[in-house]
Automatic annotation (TrEMBL):
Residues 36-118, 154-233 form the Doublecortin domain. It is found in: Cell projection, Cilium, Photoreceptor outer segment; Cytoplasm, Cytoskeleton, Cilium axoneme. It comes from Equus caballus. This is Oxygen-regulated protein 1. It comes from the Eukaryota. InterPro entries: Doublecortin_dom, Doublecortin_dom_sf, IL1/FGF, Inner_ear_hair_cell_LOXHD, PLAT/LH2_dom, PLAT/LH2_dom_sf.
């Protein structure tokens, strides 16, 4: 039982000192007379209360059936495999040996630890664990239950979230606790409101029914809303107005009913030190440990004023059951309130029954920010004639697993159990490393407690809070300095609600109270590695064995000799698997079919396939290397010396020998192969629903990739589960939203040391697909730390690429549908090379024979002398690059010329697209991709044309259409009407895909830009965004707009992205937004996310027109919005000018940012600020360019920034944050000062902070809200802005 009921982790413990009674379901059943009623206890565990089992021929037909049944009831690491008499002297081997009414011990091995059965029988089940006294203060004491009788079910106080006065007492019966969901439904009825979540009284989640049953007696019931803090005090509502016989108004917590007829009253005196700030606002509790049992946490609570103040003595009277002779106490607090730190001077205890008195000098801080940071302490109690137990500082080593995202930011708690009690729930929060519980890291903690004797188990878990709260725990080692013993508790499992069995708490046992042998752990890791690597040894695979010591491959020569110095391309270094049974294989030479690798009398040679000597057992090591052992003579290994010659273990020093081999499979990346890119033994790279990539996916179908081989060593990887989604690196991101262009081309780098591969971007040489610690994919520089290592597993082998005509790789790519008269146009060029002129070419393909194709290329007004290449894609493969060339290359691709080529295309299935481009060489490389289509339409005379309506339906991006313009000529006349479009259809506007667009006559473009076809609603406004006519004035970024009214702000409205042909130079884009109930508009803010290849943007003007009232605002900007222009701000604010009132001024706010002087206070992250005043906010602005420092946010430094915003009035607060990017992303912010000059006075406002913005420091937040403390007014100031 935890000593801190307010902590959700405390809910997980069965109990600290109470045992278990036989399960009630066995007590109410009537059995025949021949049945035997037998109690079974756990070897070496006096705190396990035993289970009672009825044994008769009907219930158990065999002794093994009984062992299996007990394995589900008695917690042993490998189940119950042995039953013996209480002292462990005689083993029971049959049902007939069991005697009615007797007790026996269960163990998983032959070694049995005797147990004091009298002590074990007094243990109670966790279901009946002690509650606080006041939880049942109104109940009269009842006698202890007689043997075979059930005790009363537990009661639970349930508070309403945010309303501590609304509470109910719920009885935890079996009917309402059949499942966690059933219990939530019951609480919904009781609380008369939906209940979907439960919290502890301090806000930690209660995630399961087990946590409810083992809780401290109170929970908070909530719907889908977050936890709301409040005074959820269980004593406050359940205490009587006056406790008779207690003169000091004692308000303890403990078990309400008398746990035996010998209840004992104790008088407790606690003196708080007179040091400065020694008093506490937290709730103090005490636990008494006796030889029989321990008390529950007893809260020392007063109703007549504050307790535990500086230099004061507080006296309480508490009542507990018969715990036996007292040998230690635990004192602690809940770390709550404004000033929780506490310095305790001394404690005195009086047993009011026996008149014994105990004095305990404390003189210790119980505070997170003092001494060792512990908020509970244990002290031994001296009894005459009894040994005193020493206070021991246990050293706890917690190893987090190597899996991706194995680390956690949640709060981790642990309790250690020994033969002399437990430590209670302790938070592991002060590691000797900088950051705790990181992937692959071992953290060391110190845990102080009265010596527990021999340790036998721990309970460890976390509270599930934080963005990355799952945790893969490898093992825990506890070192006892008193006895100089180590105890290892092996886990190797997830503590994650979304992984494994969903549990975030584990109970771990030390096997036979000894360190788990390294051999056992090694064997476990070997089995896990074999499960991941066994696919390589399937019959039919062709393998290579690389020896890391020699740096060469194993090869079998025609004369039967074997060495390990072969090259990667050596034809004698290939072996076919011709026999496979579990891990025994025969490896036949791929070149010399009659010879196989063999071990005969300790010598390695080539022998005839099929003989016993050729059968080799493959043994995998945790480092993914294989050992080859003779199946005929176990222990004989394939061994080479450092020269690559055959050796045995006695022929040279061990350092000069090697028997480990890295195994490679040939043909993994053939075209159309289906593979897994494993990131660990049980994880793989996969695409998430949002298109991002992660390395923590399950090794299942959703992680399968189809290989598209581009050329030798270069491939694309398409998701099998999400067709047409390719792995790519683009714009500094690595994701799975590629479309098959050059961004998706990867060069495969094979790592000989571990058989992994690394994927290097072809377009961005030097950038590899890598993984962050949380498993998210990102482009990284190549390192050997494992973040770029992927272990391929072939699910389905592909085939060799069809033979094409080689050529230099293209730099210009265009998609055109080319099979069976289909054509397609991509949403954008796959690569931007040299500038293309505005003339055309046309490509057509005519089927000649099954494999021969004719390609016709029609060039427009401007030709090219560059080298042109073609790729052809089918649903079963790809051919290319194919060089479109002839002997007289200077005569190709001339203006208005049609060129014909004949190419060969084999086995690619139905053609669905082609890609064509050139290498940008020659004096005249420019060549535009364009097509003109002509249609004839008959209609009654329409008069002078004013507009046209275009519509394009597309089911995927391959069907998108880029329309430059529409020219309409009336038959029989020379007049023509031009309607400019210059955008893709469908296109995105305000986050919505539109398939229709209106185009107005060219001379009307100033007043009538393309209009989206939608109906008007109340509050609809038309927004016209005019981009300037400067060179490169357009942007590729995503543009957002915020509109501020007297009633509210619209919030950021995404208008669209330049990638969708919006916001081009010298163009006007029209959008429709809804501003219903916003009130009278007084300002707008427009800006972009600074993403894409060219995010700079020159904005000329914005127009807002109310569609209903025709009210029009024209806001002139005429300014660059870019990080390298005008101070680097990517946002602009403009006041709205009205005829009836003066506009608000645009104010330059000067921001002084003071970085603290603590070690590591500096940051390299991007910092953002939002100023909030009486007239709204400035929006989130990046502090980009410091006026006084080249390097920003350094330790002890002051940085000055300036942002412009429409006057915010009196500043009240700021929101400051950073994005956590960069090697040093934590930041200690001391304060911020904001200065401004306005017509009605100056402001100088101080916003103090003095806290970390660091996910690994303080409270883990990287955003803080800072309130204005005071203003330093210059002459003419109008008043204070102090909050």
């Amino acid at each position: 039982m935890s000593e801190t009921p307010s902590t959700s982790f405390s809910m997980i413990y069965p109990t600290s000192s109470e045992g278990q009674l036989p399960s009630s379901r066995h007590l109410s059943v009537t059995h025949p007379v021949v049945a035997k009623r037998i109690s079974f206890y756990k070897s070496g565990d006096p705190q396990f209360g035993g289970v009672r089992v009825v044994v008769n021929p009907r219930s158990f037909k065999t002794f093994d059936a009984l062992l299996d049944n007990l394995s589900r009831k008695v917690p042993l690491p490998f189940g119950v495999r042995n039953i013996s008499t209480p002292r462990g002297r005689h083993s029971i081997t049959s049902l007939e040996d069991l005697e009615d009414g007797e007790s026996y011990l269960c163990s998983h091995g032959r070694k049995v630890q005797p147990v004091d059965l009298d002590k074990a029988r007094r243990r109670r089940r966790p279901w009946h664990s002690s509650l606080a006294i006041t939880a049942h203060a109104h109940r009269s004491p009842v006698p202890a239950a007689a043997p075979g009788m059930l005790r009363a079910p537990r009661r639970l106080v349930v508070f309403r979230n945010g309303d501590p006065k609304t509470r109910r007492v719920v009885v935890l019966t079996k009917r309402v606790t059949q499942s966690f969901e059933a219990f939530l439904r019951h609480l919904t009825e009781v609380m008369q409101r939906p209940v979907t979540r439960l919290y502890a009284t301090d806000g930690r989640k209660v995630p399961s029914l087990q946590a409810v049953i083992l809780s401290s007696g109170a929970v908070v019931a909530a719907g889908r809303e977050p936890f709301k803090p409040g005074n959820y005090d269980i004593q406050k509502y359940l205490l009587p107005a006056r406790l008779p016989g207690i003169s000091h108004r004692v308000h303890p917590k403990g078990n309400a009913r008398s746990e035996s007829r010998k209840s004992v009253n104790w008088k407790v005196s606690i003196i708080t030190s007179d040091l400065p700030n020694a008093g506490t606002s937290s709730q103090i509790y005490i636990i008494l440990y006796g030889q029989h049992r321990s008390s529950a946490p007893i809260y020392l609570y007063g109703t007549d004023g504050a307790r535990f103040q500086d230099g004061c003595e507080d006296i309480f009277t508490i009542t507990v059951g018969d715990i036996g002779t007292l040998f230690k106490i635990r004192i602690g607090h809940t770390n709550s309130g404004l000033s929780p730190s506490w310095h305790c001077k001394e404690i005195q205890l009086w047993n009011m029954n026996s008149r014994k008195q105990f004095y305990i000098p404390v003189q210790r801080w119980l505070a997170r920010d003092q001494e060792d940071g512990e908020i509970c302490r244990e002290f031994p109690v001296l009894n005459k004639g009894q040994p005193i137990f020493p206070v021991t500082i246990y050293e706890v080593h917690v190893a987090t697993g190597e899996l991706w995202n194995a680390g956690t930011v949640a709060n981790v708690y642990m309790s250690i159990y020994g033969e002399k009690g437990d430590t209670g729930s302790r938070q592991l929060f002060r590691s000797k490393t900088s950051f705790s519980f990181l992937r692959g890291q071992t953290d060391t903690f110190s845990l102080e407690a009265v010596h527990l004797g021999d340790l036998y188990k721990i309970v460890i878990g976390h509270d599930g809070l934080g963005p990355g709260n799952g945790w893969f725990l490898e093992d825990v080692i506890v070192k006892d300095p008193t006895t100089n013993r180590e105890y290892t508790f092996f886990c190797h499992r997830w503590l994650d609600q979304g992984e494994d069995d969903g549990k975030i708490v584990r109970e771990l046992y030390a096997r036979d109270y000894n360190i788990i042998s390294a051999r056992q752990k090694l064997e476990f890791n070997r089995k896990e590695t074999w499960a991941a690597e066994s696919w390589k040894f399937m019959k039919g695979n062709t393998l290579q064995f690389y020896n890391r010591l020699t740096g060469g491959f194993v090869r079998l020569h025609p004369n039967g000799t074997v060495d390990a110095v072969g090259k990667k391309t050596d034809k004698y270094g290939l072996f076919d698997v011709i026999f496979n049974k579990e891990n025994i294989c025969i490896f036949q030479s791929h070149k010399i079919r009659h010879l196989s690798l063999a071990l005969d009398n300790g010598s390695v040679a080539g022998m005839a396939s099929g003989g016993a000597s050729t059968k080799l057992r493959v043994l995998y090591q945790p480092n993914r290397c294989a050992l080859l052992e003779s199946a005929l003579v176990p222990g004989h290994m394939v061994i080479f010396d450092h020269h690559g010659k055959i050796a045995d273990e006695s022929s040279a020093g061990y350092a000069n020998l090697s028997k480990e081999f890295v195994v490679f499979v040939k043909g993994m990346f053939l075209n159309s192969a289906v593979i897994l890119l494993a990131t660990s033994l049980c994880q793989a790279l996969c695409i998430q629903p949002d298109g991002s990539c992660t390395g923590v996916g399950n090794q299942s179908e959703k992680s399968y990739w189809k290989v598209h081989k581009i050329s030798s060593g270069i491939c694309m990887f398409e998701s099998v589960k999400n067709a047409q989604m390719y792995l790519r690196i683009k714009d500094g991101q690595c994701d799975g939203t590629g479309t098959g262009d050059i961004d998706c081309h990867f060069k495969i780098k094979k790592n000989l040391e571990n058989a992994s591969i690394s994927l290097e971007s072809v377009k961005n040489p030097g950038l590899f697909v890598g993984l962050q610690s949380d498993g998210q994919a990102k482009p990284v520089i190549y390192t050997k730390n494992g973040s770029v290592f992927f272990y391929p597993q072939v699910i389905k082998f592909g085939r060799e690429d069809p033979t094409g005509i080689s050529a230099t790789p293209s730099k210009e790519e265009e998609k055109i549908r080319g099979s069976k008269k289909r054509q397609e146009t991509p949403p954008e060029s796959e690569a931007r090379g040299p500038l293309l002129s505005s003339t055309a070419k046309e490509i057509s393909e005519t089927l000649l024979s099954e494999d021969e194709w004719k390609v016709l290329v029609l060039t427009g007004n401007t030709g090219t002398q560059a080298n042109v290449t073609l790729w052809v894609y089918g649903d079963e493969g790809v051919t290319g690059p194919i060089s479109l060339s002839k002997d007289s290359s200077e005569q190709l691709f001339l203006p208005r010329q049609e060129d014909e080529f004949q190419i060969e295309i084999r086995n690619i299935g139905i053609i669905y697209k082609i890609r064509i481009g050139h290498d940008g060489t020659s004096e005249q490389p420019e060549w535009n991709l364009q097509r003109i289509d002509t249609f004839q339409v008959e209609a009654v005379s329409l008069g002078k044309l004013q507009k046209v309506l275009l519509r394009c339906e597309a089911s995927d991006k391959s069907q998108y259409w880029y329309c430059e313009k529409v020219v309409v000529r009336e038959s029989g006349t020379t007049s023509e009407s031009t309607f400019t479009c210059e955008r893709w259809l469908p296109f995105m506007s305000q986050g919505i895909i539109h398939s229709e667009i209106e185009l107005f006559l060219q001379e009307m473009q100033i007043n009538h830009q393309p209009k989206i076809q939608e109906g008007a609603n109340e509050g609809d406004w038309k927004v016209t965004v005019i981009t300037g006519d400067l060179e490169d004035a357009g942007t590729t970024a995503t543009v957002s707009l915020s509109v501020y009214g007297e009633t509210r702000c619209s919030g950021p409205i995404i208008l669209g992205s330049g990638k969708h042909q919006l916001f081009n130079s010298n163009s006007a884009d029209i959008f429709k937004i809804n501003l219903k109930d916003i009130g009278e508009i007084y300002k707008i803010r427009i800006g972009h996310d600074n993403r894409g290849k060219d995010p700079r943007w020159y904005l000329e003007e914005i127009r807002l027109e109310n569609i209903d009232t025709r009210e029009l605002f024209c806001l002139t900007v005429d300014s660059w919005i870019a990080e390298n222009e005008n101070g680097g701000d990517t946002w602009k604010e403009m006041p709205v000018v009205r005829t009836n009132k003066a506009p608000l001024p645009v104010v330059a706010y000067e921001i002084y940012v003071y970085t603290g002087r603590k070690p590591g206070a500096e940051t390299e992250s991007n910092v953002f600020i939002n100023l909030i005043g009486t007239r709204g906010d400035s929006g989130n602005r990046r502090l980009h360019q410091s006026k006084n420092n080249k390097v920003k946010f350094q330790r002890g430094q002051v940085d000055i920034f300036s942002i412009e915003a429409v006057s915010l009035g009196k500043l009240k607060k700021v929101l400051i944050s950073h994005n956590g990017i960069g090697p040093g992303n934590g930041w200690f912010l001391e304060s911020i000062v904001v200065k401004s000059e306005e017509e009605d006075g100056n402001q100088e406002v101080l916003f103090p902070c003095n806290r970390w913005l660091d996910e690994y420091q303080d409270d883990g937040k990287t955003e803080r809200e800072l309130l204005a403390e005071r203003s330093f007014s210059a002459a003419g100031d109008t008043g204070s802005v102090a909050s």
